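Box 3.1 A note on notation
Throughout this textbook, protein chains are presented in two layers. The first layer is the amino acid sequence; the second is a token string describing backbone geometry. Keep the layers aligned when reading.
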Amino acid sequence: MSLPFELIPLATVRVTRGDIHRMGTTAFHRRVIGGISAGRWQGERFSGDIVPPGGDWAIPSADGQLMILEVRQVVRTDDGALVYVTYQGRCDRQRGTYTVAPTFETDDERYAWLNGIQAIGQGRTEGEDIVYEMFEAH
């Protein structure tokens, strides 16, 4: 059986972790909020630096092996456009993987095509960074 969609390379993304705030168990969830201190999207059609503000509002499982991710970033493209990126996903600490589904928002006509795509990606930890391979699901 073939996939119902094609995966088109979008970018390699490197995210450098910033400050981490462990909120403990709140009235609703255990919560960890991790800042993004730096990062970069690098691809043929979309390249730029992650600029503040940005972070990951994560919910770890009771045993700490899994986490639900909710990431928000602002990317300033190499030619000056601003793109708001959000993605949800899961981290499996035992496997060392991050599986995510990014969406994009921009008012810049050069990148309006991003508004209509769904991306998917998988990342891995490299030192203090998380490195993702992101794809447009077409």
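The mean pLDDT is 93. The two ends are 17 Å apart (CA to CA).
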